[in-house]
Batch of 4 targets.
Target 1
Amino acid sequence: MPVQFPNADFIRHMPKVELHLHLEGAFTFEYLLGLIRKYEPDSEIDSVEQLRKRFQYKDFPEFIRIWLWKNQYFREPEDFKQLVYTTLKNLADQQCYYVEAFYSPWDFRMNDISASTITEAMITGAEEAERDFGIRCRLIADLIRDLGWETAGDRLDEITPYLGDRLIGIGLGGSEQDYPADGFREVYREAKSRGFRVVAHAGEAEGPGSIRMAIDELNAERIGHGVRATEDPELVSYLVKTQLPLEVCITSNIKTGIYRSIEEHPVRQLFEQGVRITINSDDPAMFGTTLTNEFLILQKFYEFSYSEIKQLSLNAVESSFMPESEKENLRKKIWIYWQKTN
């Protein structure tokens, strides 16, 4: 029987799961422009087109600088609540049923708003979106490498009161080349003892050694990005054996200069080697993509078949931190969709 390849409509309507999304990078440009007008009415930025031009990056450090620039316009609890609500509406429109989303409340200290206030606002936004759109969202707090390991325990303490059904984990994003994971060993150990799920970005700006450190020192349950594992065959063998998930974000890796082109990206190589990967959008607004678009890229440039796309969808369910009962319900949605389509 010949291999069958999905068409674009199939991709658009299929059930999806998103496991690597930064809420602060998932705004719409219309929403951000509204915030700029709200807080800086005399700004020279007066159109979506002008705003888009700000979001061009030649490398990862420049991406971080732009990330911090736009953060100045998120100042009140309502800004964060609406950010979550509109982001989840957009994902629900893409047939995404479940999201585990990063948020970085300490990036907004300059705006004189606390991590607690931001967390409460985002939980409210997630609850309202689930009520209105049926999409389930759980939060993972990014402890942020660049703020240093010395105060990471304080950051953990700030969010611990909110640990529960909505806030479920911690992550570690930022400049992995400047702030190695081993410095965060103790705070990760403490977080696990409190009941947090633990993930970490690694193998993005830095190579496979960063991934090994996230595994060995942090006992990370998933690796954000992790694509540079391909530079270490022994590490790839370990990932295949353990099925430790990699949260792959194709467009992100190209826009930040990790790879020069679609053709260079190792998503197909990782999949064929048997590494458990999931497909994600990372910072969709900042990178000009969507979760749907990331799957369309698989279809157009890498010729992923129906069965391979289905496997990636199931990978996301299995790699998530949702309870088994929720996993089973989502598996059924995926299987029913495939039965109708094929």
Note: The radius of gyration is 19 Å.
Target 2
Amino acid sequence: MMCQKCNTDIYILDDHGQGCYVCTECGLVASGLFIADEAFFDKSIESMSHTEVFENNTKLLKFKNSFDLIFDKLGLHDCIKNYAQDLYVMFEKDHTFKGRNINLIICAFIYIAGKANNYAINAHIFGKEYEKDVMQNVKFIENTLKIKTEVKEPEKTFTDKDIEAFICKYITLIPEANKKMKFDIIKLIPLTEFVMRKKEVTAIALIIYYKKDKRLLKTLSQGSGISELAIKSALRDIDELKVKS
């Protein structure tokens, strides 16, 4: 249960004396059970009662309890949880879920929140038998709130298998070379996306760039048969692109 003002649950206290949940930080009543001064007829229990239930607060409490049960089983990131709950609160201010299954609604909010945070979330995680119903609720929420779950295309990282192969080939010319060094140099390949040199030359330049040892220039030049001038040019290109980035 969250205090809407403090936006945290760490100060929430179950006040049995007052019959409600209260935030001890700001004093805001956080849940919907209150003690009325006069008894009234409670239709839900068909008897007289002093406990008055505010609909919006009990809805939020019911949603929170059901939400936690479902979300904890999925093992998703907390940023999805927070976003989904915020969407629910926003929806409840002006709209209603009357006639809809609360569990499917919860799954729909989680799906929307996942897509909004660029997570590769699939409705299958809620169970294949519920996929169609979940997506219907997703469409209902999106249309009601006029939101879209457009997923941004992730930026593609430049890779080049030929450059990688040349790195693996020529790194053997360095006595202290090991697997970690090789993989670290391969990770630098994105730096060469706009280097307009032969891939073999680029690979050798990356090895020297990683080692920060210009003495390797002669060793790798002789071992590969590539001129030192060409390797120096590729090194200069990498340095310039690194500065720009």
Note: The chain has three domains: 1-53, 55-153, 161-244.
Target 3
Amino acid sequence: MEIYQKKYWERKSLLLRRDHSHPVVKEFVLPKINEIRKIIPIKMETTLLDVGCGNGFFSYYFDKICDTTGIDYSETMISLNPIAKKYVMSAEDLKFSDNSFDIVFCNSLLHHVENINKVIDEMKRVSKKYIIISEPNALNPLIFIFSALNKEERKALKFSLRFLEKKISSSGAEIISAFSCGIITPNKIPPYLYPY
């Protein structure tokens, strides 16, 4: 990842992010997991790798329903993640054998990496069957404004469902489902709009 991204994800203000169990985070995560479960069967014995797991927005909830491992290259972020199996690692060089996980998942990661194709290829390599990619949708006005105002988020401006479908298809992966959902952003919804 680019140098400014590394500094961005190691800054001390991340310690003030909403916790993985915060109601806004829960409302951001659970509808997506519920949609995923309509398409892909997930059981307790299912192995899942959360790539770019951060402080555990998704891995915290996945860990309740399957065998979850998380990786992130930010020591600050991963130190806040409550799951047991977590490692500091680059998404562009996953230190796992081929076909190590039933599902490989990432959320809001690709717009932060330098080589999107490399990350998708690595996710495909370590997955037995499924990769799941979730990214901000620049067609959402709130995402557009946030991404335009923050240089570390600016690459998200090119992300839309169509853009992501093209990236995935060009990697040789078969898309079995693609959808756009949600307007809640886990760290930027002001408390007065969702006062928990």
Note: The longest strand covers residues 127-134.
Target 4
Amino acid sequence: MGTSTALADVDRITWPRKFDLFGVRVSATTYDETTRLATDAVRGGRSACVSALAVHGLISGANDGAFRSVLNTFDILTPDGQPVRFALNLLHHAGLADRVYGPELTMRMCAHAAREGIGVYLYGSYPHVVAKMAQNLLYRFPELQISGYEPSAFRKLTPAEDAALVNRINESGAGFVFIGLGCPRQEQFAAEHRQAIRGVQVCVGAAFDFIAGNKPMAPPWMQRRGLEWLFRLGQEPSRLWRRYAVTNAAFVVKLCGKMLGRRA
């Protein structure tokens, strides 16, 4: 009776409202709402997919129909970047006071998981990074149940390896599965494993590096003003200059085009 009631309740989850940004359906949501709904899914035994979507992921989806289709299957696509939040507010009057940033979302969900007894699994990045991330999370939240963690193989898994990974995650009993494979690999992985992994998959990318202390985060004032990309570019110019030159310019062009179109 109790299980049937829980499953019936979770079927009635009302996911956050989504708005179209260049063909990608982005959720107008908050940290608290995302955490609450993810918990509801876990309690009801329902698999779900969440991703913290910054400008790079948004533009990748806008320009790639196949990836856009993947993103639009997600239950929640949070506005990770301030520019994404700005666009939601400008074009759809979403009224969002803050973004839902992957590293901060991870910390808040882990704090909640520690209080509620929900196990977490960490999958992605390099061995030393994911191990340090787990260590730092336990230092911050001593009651947190880290059900398991493992690095990315940085290649496509064989069917046997993939099945073994899914089995490890499911056997761990984790409710929240944090994935740090980078965009778009992490979103593709989550979508492909929606039916196989029994838990809420949360794609948070660079959160692994930041929480592990492997890379510095931008100062809060830069984050608030949507200038985190500039800080990260200064940290890793050779790796990120092309991404930001292309995606930021495309974002501005698309946003201006939408605004001008509405005024015409």
Note: Residues 19-222 form a domain with the Rossmann fold fold (CATH 3.40.50).
